[in-house]
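Protocol step 4 of 6: structure prediction from sequence.
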Amino acid sequence: MNFRLRYAITALVIILGTGLFAYARLGNEIVGTFLNAAGQVTTLEAAAVEDSSAVLQGDLSQINDHEEADVYFKFREVGEDMEETWWIIADTHIGSHRASEANALENLQKAVADANELGLSQKAIVLGDFVHDSPDFVPDFVNAMDGLDHEWTYVLGNHDFDRHGSGERVMDRNFFKMDIGGIRFIAISDDGSWAGSWFPGEVYQAYQTEKNLMTDQNDWFKGELDRDPDKPTVLWSHQGLKRMYERDDDDGPCFWDPERRGWLQENWGDYNIIMWKRGHRHNWNFDEDYRGYGFVDVSPGAMGNDDRAGAVYMTVTREGDTTTIWLRFRDPLLNRWSRSAGVTDYKMEVVHGWGETVQQKMTGSGEFNATIDRLLPGREYEFMAVAVVGNEKIKGDVLSFTTAEVTGAIQDTEEIPPSFELRQNYPNPFNSTTVIEYHLMNEEHVRLQIFDTTGRFVTEIVNERTTAGTHRVKFDASGLSSGVYLYKLRAGMHEQSKRMTLIK
């Protein structure tokens, strides 16, 4: 009998903050039994949701005390088969006085009608410049987009500011992430305006779209990339890499914050960014290997031109371990599929392989463990223990566990924050449930209410006296229809509100 056949590996998973764990078995030899139904996690603090960790533990038995082995774990998130199509447009420029954009509103209405007639998409995203320099045109844009048969969202562009008046954004910033078919999509908004020699007036912020990201959004963006650097990632934005993160001489003048100049460019190899979709260029564009960075660069063209218009339909399909991103270019004014850089469509396949923990060396039989960080709530993961002894690789059974959904009023902390603050809900956009966090400097009577975009009261989540500190509460919107909602926090003399997007 081959001595190697007598090796046995067991595997065990423990979610931090609980005592739940499960043993695996190898072949017919039962090493342990489940101590909890399917190893399910039933409670998990909200603070651990974004940065939750799992301790994977294995046991290697029946090798000699002096024999060495390399041990590690393979793991992956279990994805469900799905298909979803997004309608992607940019640069509608409603309200522009430029001759080429005089029919912008009419063009957008035609494009909405074309999208409805095709009936391909379930969601839409606008990549900036939806209005032109004035809040007066926001209602026209919203009314046109509300003609879609499905929901839509947006990211701000460099024209979506009141440049002739206050200099403020015409709508709130919208930066968020979504997981579609195992691909991470991150949307980031422009955040600045300029006047100067282009626009006479008192508003002047030195072409701040070059600097683009305010500190909180920038830190959030970098944090999301750092959360899982190897995860396949698609970016949505109005401006792109060369406008936001590259060299001074790459695309016109730059007024970078020197402390933040080029962090993405300098660390590009640390992340797995596979595609970037962005507006701003006013024409279709497609580059399969943008400037040698190894990602696909895509522009949907401009909607606000009377001689041409552009849109991209993005279909994400997952079957088993493979996700396919399929892009098709569309002229919605002429109601026909079009070509960009010589292609009418483009498909990218992403195979979701196993991740591996760092190998550890052990001598003789015994237990070993490793930690994987930053798991998502309500997701299923599978893993197995692996040992390499000499020239032989031994694998344990594949086990799975499911992290808990965020439930209830989640976590409160007594640490006194430095200021009153209402944070952006997480996740956003969301499907049915989301978490709202707020910070109080003092004990106050708190009211947290939900309104629709017309200002109509929808519901109240909190109405009680609340201690100082950080508080998180879950909002269940399963009874509401898809759309944009306003959540408003009142505490003593303080009041703040933010928008959130419900997508079903």
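Step 5 (inspection) to follow. The longest helix spans residues 104-118.
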